[in-house]
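HUMAN: Can I see a protein plus its fold?

ASSISTANT:
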Amino acid sequence: MTNDTIVSAFILGIVEGLTEFIPVSSTGHILLLGHFLGFESTGKTFEVLIQLGAILAILTVYFGRLWSIALALPSDARSRRFVAGIVVAFLPAAVIGVFAHGFIKTVLFESPELICSTLLIGGVVLLYIDRLPLKPRYTNAMDYPLGLCLAIGLCQTVAMIPGVSRSGATIAGALLMGTDKRSAAEFSFFLAMPTMAGAFAYDLYKNRDVLSADDAMIISIGFVTSFVAGVFVVKGLLDFVSRHGFAPFAYWRIFVGVAGFVGLYFAG
């Protein structure tokens, strides 16, 4: 393990934490940046396993809210419906993720051109949706009906294509189906917990025999930095979205997609 590898893991961990919960595609960013840094992880595990830091960032910021929901489950039908909605929304990605795991890791993760394309397309789509005169029917994530939760979960499966963005797909789908921006972003936070935890556990299981002590070290570095960066993003994102919408993220996606294509043209 070289110093360059350690520095790359540190940088990529920060990028993961900064981008996981905003609709710009954290996986697309770290795969594309890793390509230009010359960073290669065993079985592309680093890019998935450092998401545990982002999961813990949500748990840290939302611990009080999660604890209140857990305590209310036996007596509060609203809390039970909300938890059921998260589970329902999680299931499509869980099923497809298991069956398409090999294809995603060995084909889709290895195409920086695909990532640049999906970043660009996703930016244009997000910008279009952000400008639509939508009238929300749901303004609290706790009140989403199960049918809406399932539909949002189906939207999330599109994000298995790197560069699409898990949060972007869920938020865009939720907005088109009648939610407001703040509750859509918050539901995406909650849905991220089982989704990323499941991806972490399954990827660790699939690669348990090939990971080394060096792999564990760089994953730990990425985990810590993604956790710290993720806490800052989770704390401020909902207020930012309420004030500015999603257009800034759309423009950033387009910029990164174009920059990626330029870099690939000149640097390969």
The chain has one domain: 3-267. Residues 213-244 form the longest helix (32 residues).
